[in-house]
Design a protein that fits this description.
heterodimer, A: 426 residues, alpha/beta, ten-stranded mixed sheet, globular, B: 251 residues, six-stranded mixed sheet, four-stranded antiparallel sheet, 10 helices, 12 strands, binds adenosine-5'-triphosphate, binds magnesium ion
Chain lengths: 426, 251
Amino acid sequence: MRPSMEHLASAFAQRPDSANLPEWLTMMQNDSWKRARSHGLPWRKDEHWKYTSLYNLAKLELRAPETPASDLTVRGSRVYQNDHATVIEWRNGRPLTSMSLPGGVSFRTLGGDVPSNSDFLTNEPARHSVMQDINQAFADTVCELTVAANTRVELPVYLLQELQGNNVLASQRLHINVGDNSELDLVDHLVGSGSDNVNNRHLSIFIGANSHVRHTLIQQDDLATSLINNVDVAVSRDANYVSQVFDLGARLARHDLGISLNGENAHCSMVAAYLPHDEQHVDHHTLVKHNKPNTHSEQRYNGVAGFKGHGVFNGKVLVQPDAQKITAAQSNQNILLCDQAAVDTKPELEIYADDVKCSHGATVGQLDETALFYLQSRGLGKHQAQQLLVQGFVRDIYANIRCKTLHDWLDKAITSKLDELVSKLQ
Amino acid sequence: MLTIKNLHASVDDTPILKGIDLALEPGKVHAIMGPNGSGKSTLAGVLAGNPRYEVTDGSIEFLGHDLLDMSTEDRARAGLFLAFQYPVEIPGVNNAYLLKAALNAKRTYNGEPELDAFEFLSKIKASMKIMEMSEDFLKRDVNAGFSGGEKKRNEVLQMQMLEPKLAVLDETDSGLDIDALKVVAEGVNRLRDEERSFLVITHYQRLLDHIIPDHVHVLAGGRIVKSGTRELALELEARGYDWISSEAVAS
Ligand SMILES: Nc1ncnc2c1ncn2[C@@H]1O[C@H](COP(=O)(O)OP(=O)(O)OP(=O)(O)O)[C@@H](O)[C@H]1O
Ligand SMILES: [Mg+2]
């Protein structure tokens, strides 16, 4: 049976302030809710939800968040202080602060009349998911971040997002529009606390011709938080999208990353490290659509599953009939640290063109015994040796990050996470 | 230093070592020679505590400890070093980092303070000079992409740094060019003193011209079938192993 939508239905009926929303938004919410309702929550019989169950999530008596108080005290450490990045703070899915933005960058919340230039609200994503409909049904603050054409944004834009309270369903909806010949470094930091909160977010990103967007997502939710992360990216000709995701927390983290390579010589590179343990479940679903010739994609997903950790990877590359001379490389490597760790992996290729270079590979294995013995024979304790090996495997994912602040922050956070993973082994 | 008695060991239930007796005194160099597959690396692995091998009988005493009772890391910290026949490539683990971690693990075990960055650096630079290694190796990952000879040098570099009480060198000479052989031998000889012992596994008399052994043993079929002085190595070089096997059978 599909998980019940009853709690979501009552949350929808009792949305705060729903009467004060602009008419177009209320209509959009209602339409989306109808679609979601008629489909129902995804479950294991839906192709893309075979390994990830939403039963526990459906049991939560969720409600849409109240309007936030104005201050933000994010627990845990910030990656950037205010003078090293343009910080946009969020709580429970809504933006908080009036930030000062660099030239060429603007941020708006869509309200009032039917918004202009908002095709993104109706665009078809690379892959549609009911969770996007649910996001759209609940999102009452639709935001857009715009980078004008010919703008090189020097400092990273740091989206620092916190969940607070309990039983909150946060529904962040953000569109990022990057004009032609521009460059943006986006660091997306999720810090969920409180209890039984769900972050069902939807980010859509449009990248204009010859532009570059680097998108780092650090997921540091606590163990009582669930994340459904819908990211949809459209990449124009000669443009480049880089996604780097680090799953350091959350009870359930589900990533749906859909990328459409829509112009010749569009490129995307996706890497991730996920480190589930202690009943954590991390699921990466990716879809890359090669819609035009000479487009390129590469994926490198490295997972380490500790005691009672579960990882899922399902990566699909779809090559359209006239998309000749594309290259697509996909790799998913996993290390299981003990018997009670599990990973399900399924790389997929669907190719309708004949002149393509595609490769994919997936491995699930244990730590290399010989390497472990080598390190121990040099005097390193077993846990230290395990940690070093795992760290080497994960470092492969973030070693190339050029921003030293970000690199060092990640290095520290990942080291202490791995320490935790390894110390729970016998 | 080291006393091995009646040592039997198996791999995946296949007996490999079938009763080894061997005693090493402090300050001595013992060479072990023997045909391929005779169990030399197995012996080295058992000494270092490789979990691949199961010891089915016998005992090993090392500096008063029951060696078989100790974890691999404690054996290393107590002063046992194994230079691998096939050093392991470990991508993602930095060479200098490993050396520092190894050194400090040992120091902590022996109740000594950890080295600070400066002390470590000067120590390692001195060792790299002896081994004629470029300092670039410090920045690289452990053995990753090293040539065969570079890996062997790196093993000896680690030995220099860790200053073990007993070093087991498993074919550290194979794959080395003539100059590298001299460098490696020099790296070993510098460490020789009245206290430190070496167990040198080799196929070639050539190495023993540089590292002069006190005793030479022949391991065949999982047993030490002959022991002698360095002249035995010369004889083996000239005559091969067959005559020993027949001699052993005859006796
Ligand atoms: N899993 C196994 N099952 C059965 N026999 C094994 C297994 N692993 C190794 N052996 C055997 O153990 C024997 C001893 O191997 P070892 O590596 O100790 O030889 P060695 O004397 O070091 O040889 P070399 O001079 O070639 O280095 C070999 O005959 C080898 O085939
Ligand atoms: Mg051998």
